[in-house]
Structures are given as C-alpha cells and as structure tokens.
Amino acid sequence: MSQRHESTVSEDTGAADRPSAATANDTAGRDRLRPGLLVGALGVVFGDIGTSPIYTLRTVFDPADPHPVPVRAENVYGVVSLVFWSILIIVTVTYVLLAMRTDNDGEGGIMALITLVRRWSAGGRTAAVLAALGIFGAALFFGDSMITPAISVLSAVEGLGVAQPALAKAVVPVTALIIVLLFAFQHRGTASVGRLFGPVMVVWFLTIGACGIGGIGRHPAILRALWPGYALEFLAGHFGIAFFALAAIVLAITGAEALYADLGHFGRRSITGAWLLLVLPACVLSYLGQAALELEAGGHVASPFFLLVPSWGRLPMVALATMATVIASQAVITGAYSVAAQAARIGYLPRLRIAYTSASTPGQIYVPWINWLLLVSVLTLVFAFRSSSALAFAFGMAVTCTITITTLLLGYLAHARWGLPRWLVVLGWTPLLAVDLLFVAANLTKLVRGAWLPLLIGLVVFTVMTTWQRGRQVVATERNRLEGPLREFLDELRDGSNLTTVDGTAVFLDRSKQTVPLALRANVERNRIRHRQIVIVSVETEPVPRVSAGDRIGIDHLDFRDDGVVHITARVGYLESPDVPAALAGLDPHDTEGVLDLDRASYFLSHLELRAAERPAMSRWRTRLFIAISYLSADVADDFRLPRERTVILGELLEV
C-alpha cells in the first residue's frame, strides 16, 4: 500500500514491492555486532522488561489478590519455573528467534507486520481479518504506553516505603512529579540524555544480577526451578492456582514487543546479543534470588526485590530503580510517537504535527498531541490506582493480547513470505499460540480488577483508526467526483482562450496524476488564470521505511513541452518526513528543459471543509467522529516543508 497526500485526507493505492537500497545499506550497518550498539540497545530496548523484576513476584504472591498464590515451597518452585520458561518461550523464541527475522527492510514492530501482511497477502477475508487484528494490536500499544510509565515509576518509588516506612505517603506525589517532569522534557528529545541510558542500564542489570546471586546463596536449591518439570507439574497438579497466577507471571515478559519494535534502531544482532549476554541472565538471577528469599521467609514478603538489597543499599537502589523505570517509560513514550507517525503515514491516523529533535537521527521525533494525551492519561492512572499492584492486571492484559496478535501475524507470514508448508506452520505455531492464549484467558479473569482498562483503550483507539481509514476512502471517492479526470482538464486548458497566463511556476499538490488538484481547478474556473509552468506533485509513502535516492523522483511530462504541465511523483518511506521543496530541488534540469523557477515557485493547496451529508456514507456517529478527528490534522504546509511566504491555500466544502 502507498499513501498519496494532498490535504486533510488522501487515497491508498498499490505500490511496488521493492526494497530500498539505502535501507538495505543502513540495515547492514545496524546489524553488525558492535559494543556501542549493544550498550545503546540496553538503554532503549530493555528498560521495560528489565524493570519487571521489581513487581512481578510481589504481584504473584500478593495476599490482596482475589486468587492469591499461597507461599509454599512447591508453589514458589512452580511459579519461578513458569516465569523462566515463559520468558524463554515468548521472548527468546517468539520475538528473538522468529519476529526479528520478519522485518520490513530492517524495521520491526506491529505496524511493520501489518504492512508485510498486506504486501504478501493475495487479499481476501483472512488477510483483512489479520490486518484488523494488527491495527488492534497497534491500538493496544497506546494503552501500554499509558500504563507502563504509571506502573514502572510507581513500583520504583514504592521502594521508599521499604527503605523508609515514614515516606510511604509520599509515593504517589513523588511519582506524579517525576512523570510530569518526564513528559515536560520530551520536546528536547532523547539525544542529550541518550548517552546516559545505556551505562545506567548496564549498572542496573549487573546490580540486580548480583543481588539475585546473593539471594540464591541463601537457598541454592532454588536453581532446580530452571528444570521445566516444575512448571509442568505446577500447571498440571495445581491448575486452579497456576492458572490465576499466570495473570501476574505475564508481567515478567512485559516489554517483549520493544525488542521487535526497535529492530530498525539497533539491528537484530545487537538486540539478540544484549538479551542473551546480559539481560536474560540478570533477570533470571533476580527472580531466582527473590524466590529464595520467599522460601527463606516461609511466607509472603512485601517487596522481595528491594529486600534482596542490604539495608544500607536500599535508598541507592530506589534511586537506581527510579532511573531505570524512567528509561523504561522513555522507551515506550517514544515508541508511541513512532507508532502514531507510522499509522498516520499509512492512513490510519490524521497527519499529526511532528517535531524532529535530532538533526542526525530522523527516528528521534516528538509528537505534541500524543505527548500531552499520554501525560493526562498516565497521571489519571497514577491517582486512580495509587499502587503498582493495582495496575498490574491492567498491564498484563495489554501485553498478552499484543503478543498473541504478533504470533498470529508471524504464523501467517511464515507461510506467505517464508514459504513454509501449512502443516509445518500449524505444528510449530500451535504450541506458541497455546501459551499466549493461556495467558490471555488468565488475564480475562481479572477484568473487574483492571484488565478492562487496556481493552477499553484499545477499542477506542481501534475505532478512531478504522473510522479515519474508512472516512478517507469516502472522502477520496467524493473528491474524485469533484476533481474530474486530469487528461480532460488539460484538453480544456489548452483550448482556454479566455484565460490569463501569468509568468512563473505554480506547484499543486495532489494525490495522483489521474485527477485534477482542486486548487488548480478553482484557480482556472474561478480566477480564470493559469501559470506558465504548472507542476503537479504527488507524495507517495511507500511500504518501506526509507526510499533510496534513485527511487525518490518519478516524472510524467504530460503536456509539458506544449502547455508547460508536468507531474512529479515524490516517494518517501513510512519512517521519513516528506519535504516537497527538497524533492523538487533534486530534479534534473534536463528533464524539465531548465525552465522551472523552483526558487520562486508558488505552492497551492486545497483545504477541505468537511460537513456531514444528509445521507452520510458511514453511520452518523462515525461521520461525526471522522469530522472531529480531522481537526487534529497538522498543517499541510508544515508537514510538507512548504515555504509559508509562497504558499496559497484554497478552501472547498465537501459533504461526507
């Protein structure tokens, strides 16, 4: 699918399935195993999953849970074994071994999977259902982006109550202050602090691993929990307890989707190396150490993660944990910016205002509207739930649904893209899906305890995204009627004896070369003037992250020699920002006979004023929602980097 732009809405059409040479080179560079990339991956990719040991086991054995897990030796062994094998199966197998080999020209994430499904499918109901599931998975990610900062920062600051019980009442206010500061500084970008993220997380993982080893030293027999028999025996022999425990055990794999989403930033080898060499061992050691502490205590331990630390080191550990959870929050916030930008590029959200916070790294962006929406949502969650334990089940629901959708899409692509036989896909993916669905079922039992929240957020965002995509199609149909065929218009233009021709070059943005830009038609039919040189530009977002220099420009001379009309196709990847003047500057003067005066060209845009028709194409509530969403669209001139002093906007009323 490629997206062609003009104003508020645009039309999706097919695009060639071709790799980008520039992207391939970038991917090859990122996929080298380099120490700098390893440290960078530790700072950005693993913040979420690396801070899960703070609250996972505490939540599993929380006596306030309606289905508590009694702290008995067989239960502790079974829980820790389930934690270890869940991490191994879901994170290592599904994401590290499978998902990371399913990239879209080096880029990963749920939006990349949706693009691949559409590209490799032959159409039909199955592909449509899978694409819709993918969109719902992307919608759930926004819920994850709201819950992660709340639960992560809360869980770290709650360590104050362990180190100094008198400070327990300060947990919520301190958490809220940290979150406000975190979002307030987003507009500065992550470049200035990014260099600190990796070293901090290296210290974090070494510290939690060392504390875990100290706990294991108290009860070395806990190492036997690594044997899968304990997990299977716990599930089979104590299913009534184990099933409900899964709703909390899933917290150990939160953040797994970040490994795949950040594939394009660091490459498969760097992420895999960081995971296998440091993150996985450190997390497993921490879980084993906490379990040993539970066994030694012989009962529930209020905060086993912080109690593993000697009393003299607990306040420093709270500070380190707070930094680690801020990093985890930062990663998911920037991930929300990226998902929103990609969704807008492929037509599921309106074009949002995007600020680029790094001159050298295009992926570092800031989306103001998303930032302030997340801030309000996160603060609401903090003050409504007030503890990480209360938020735990909401967190697990978002994660399990996203992982299940990812597994389904990967299974489809294993057959469609990799060419694996159906029987082999069914044989290989059934166990993975069974594990995922078991986690989903367990979390469904926590609906009244907060698991409804991410589903509600996901449903709202899914409705917004699909309504926008459907509304764009309705608008595109109506626009085609108003615009009319371009070839017929050029014939009329050639015969227009009562038109005034003015010197200079006019650039009109349109969706394709099949129809007339509304601004051009209005200029001719209402103002009765035309420019001597007319350039019609269509910006296409290709289903690849970046487009190579040789593929960026396409030229159709139309009637340029006789009437001075030329059509330019400017192609960009879905991770790139369209820059129309820069694209036109790359034209070879020989292709346009050197007569285009682009340095002084005027740019014309058509702005659509939407109004509900008496008999709308969509239901009335969706039509009203679509029109309301349209007001969130960023300014087209800013989005396409058009010079303000030379841009003219002509309005048009459109009923939908």
Structural write-up:
This protein has helices at residues 21-30, 35-44, 47-50, 56-60, 73-98, 110-120, 125-157, 159-163, 171-184, 191-218, 228-237, 239-249, 256-261, 263-266, 268-297, 304-307, 314-345, 368-385, 388-416, 422-444, 452-483, 486-494, 518-525, 560-563, 580-585, 620-630, 636-639, and strands at residues 2-5, 11-13, 355-356, 365-366, 500-509, 529-542, 553-559, 565-573, 602-611, 647-655. The protein is an alpha/beta fold and 656 residues long. The chain has two domains: 34-450, Amino acid/polyamine transporter I (Up-down Bundle); 476-655, no CATH class. The longest helix is centred in the first third of the chain and has 33 residues, at 125-157. It starts with a strand and ends with a strand. Its main location: membrane. Transport of potassium into the cell. Likely operates as a K(+):H(+) symporter. Keywords: Cell membrane, Ion transport, Membrane, Potassium, Potassium transport, Symport, Transmembrane, Transmembrane helix, Transport. This is Probable potassium transport system protein Kup.
